């Protein structure tokens, strides 16, 4: 559970938790005695304060989802990370770029494995990778529900979708319910209300979710002889 420091008076600190505190649970764990809490202050180094908070929150959610102790979940993720990137990870020693890679790694694991999150963390929604992996693994970016539909944020129009280079259009993965809400509300209002960041998908993601084939992508790449032609094609498609 994360908390924001509101005020500090000598040895007294006023905290605001990011979720409601259950009074019945507090009474239970106090067992009729004085209540205590273990506090770890997060270093507000601009390179990692939010990253640290999000990292620990995701590790906690992985632990709860897999019913294992938090330290075990942390070690498990560190081992998988080391096998994937051939390097070790340490919160204490990580640079900002290393933390970004670690966060993206955790986000992909959480989305791919269907780890249930208690809420949509604000810090999480700041990462475009979250919305990218929701598309890649077809998980709703609002609810996490599997089998999401891939929603074109920019309308493709009447053009045959097999003749469209979908790398040039932003997407978001939405359940059937929220896909309909997006159409009913209008794109701008929907994106703002649900804090959605549409993302452009690369070759790997588009092939994985079946929107484009490798042959289609190769055909388009052949057409884009130079970067100038590619930019021109983007402008022409977006003006339709």
Task: State the major sheet.
Answer: 3 strands, antiparallel
Distance between the termini: 48 Å
Beta-strand segment tally: 5
What number is the mean pLDDT?
A: 86
Query: How large is the share of residues in beta strands?
Result: 5-15%
Secondary-structure content class = mainly alpha
Rg over CA atoms: 22 Å
Protein name: HNHc nuclease
Pfam families: HNHc_6 (PF16784)
InterPro entries: HNHc_6
Organism: Enterococcus gallinarum
Written overview of the protein:
The relative contact order is 0.08. The protein has 11 helices and 5 strands. With 240 residues, it is mostly helical. The N and C termini lie far apart (48 Å). Strand 1 and strand 2 (12-17) form a beta hairpin. The strands form 2 sheets. The chain has a 3-stranded antiparallel sheet.
Blueprint (SSEs and pairs):
Blueprint: E1 3-9, E2 12-17, H1 23-30, H2 49-66, H3 70-85, H4 96-112, H5 122-125, H6 128-136, E3 149-152, E4 170-174, H7 176-185, H8 187-193, E5 199-200, H9 203-208, H10 214-223, H11 227-238
Helix pairs in contact: 2-3, 2-4, 4-6, 7-8
């Amino acid at each position: 559970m994360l908390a924001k420091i509101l005020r500090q008076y000598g040895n007294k600190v006023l905290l605001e938790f990011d979720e409601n505190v259950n009074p019945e649970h507090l009474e239970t764990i106090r067992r009729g005695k004085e209540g205590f809490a273990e506090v770890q202050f997060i270093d507000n180094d601009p390179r990692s304060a939010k990253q640290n908070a999000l990292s620990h929150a995701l590790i906690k959610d992985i632990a709860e989802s897999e019913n294992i102790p938090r330290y075990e979940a942390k070690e498990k993720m560190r081992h998988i990370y080391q096998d994937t990137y051939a390097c070790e990870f340490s919160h204490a020693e990580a640079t900002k770029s290393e933390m970004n890679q670690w966060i993206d790694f955790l986000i992909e694991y959480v989305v791919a494995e269907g780890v249930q999150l208690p809420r949509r963390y604000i810090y999480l929604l700041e990462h475009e990778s979250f919305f990218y992996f929701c598309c890649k693994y077809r998980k709703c970016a609002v609810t996490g529900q599997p089998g999401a539909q891939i929603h074109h944020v920019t309308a493709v129009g009447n053009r045959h979708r097999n003749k469209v280079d979908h790398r040039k259009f932003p997407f978001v993965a939405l359940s059937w319910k929220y896909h309909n809400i997006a159409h009913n509300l209008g794109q701008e209002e929907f994106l703002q209300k649900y804090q959605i960041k549409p993302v452009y998908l690369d070759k790997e993601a588009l092939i994985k979710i079946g929107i484009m084939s490798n042959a289609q992508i190769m055909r388009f790449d052949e057409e884009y002889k130079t970067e100038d032609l590619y930019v021109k094609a983007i402008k022409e498609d977006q003006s339709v």
